[in-house]
Amino acid sequence: MRELIKKYASFSGTVTRMEFFSRSIILYIIFFIAGRYWPQAVSIPVMVISMACLWGLCIRRLRDIGWSIWIALLYVVPFIYVIVFIVLCVKDGGNK
Questions:
Q1: What would the DSSP string read from start to end of 53-94?
Q2: Which of 39, 43, 65, 84 has the fewest CB atoms nearer than 10 Å to its CB?
Q3: Residue 1 pLDDT more than 50?
Q4: How many helices (H) and strands (E) does the chain have?
Q5: What is the arithmetic mean of pLDDT over 15-39?
Q6: 27, 53 Cβ separation under 8 angstroms
Q7: What sign results for the dihedral spanned by CA atoms 17, 20, 26, 29?
């Protein structure tokens, strides 16, 4: 369990396309379920943690493709984060 949390919450290193896509989808599902079905006292901390993990994945993926990590700030702009997510999923990285 500790190793799983380290992989999700890490802001260092790189992540491949497939790892980025699969982990992001899992975190988006958790984010959606927490916001939709759980009580507010539980959902807000879970949503904050999942967003931090998504941001960490985004930063690690940006490092893998050689782009500036400042692009991760676009993840907080509504609708623009979808474009960033798609680009990060399809762009080839240096980690083969």
A1: HHHHHHHHHHHHHT--GGGGGGGGSTTHHHHHHHHHHHS--S
A2: 39
A3: no
A4: 4, 0
A5: 84
A6: yes
A7: negative
Give me Rg for the CA atoms of the chain. 13
Summarize pLDDT for 57-94 with one digit per residue, the tens: 888 889 989 898 898 888 888 888 889 888 888 888 77
What's the token pair of residue 90?
């399809």
| Domain-wise residue ranges, the chain | 2-89
Phi then psi for 43, rounded to 5 degrees? -70, -35
Structure tokens at 46: 């879970």
Residue 8: the pLDDT is 65
**With contact defined as beta carbons under 8 Å apart, do 93 and 44 qualify?**
no
DSSP 11: -
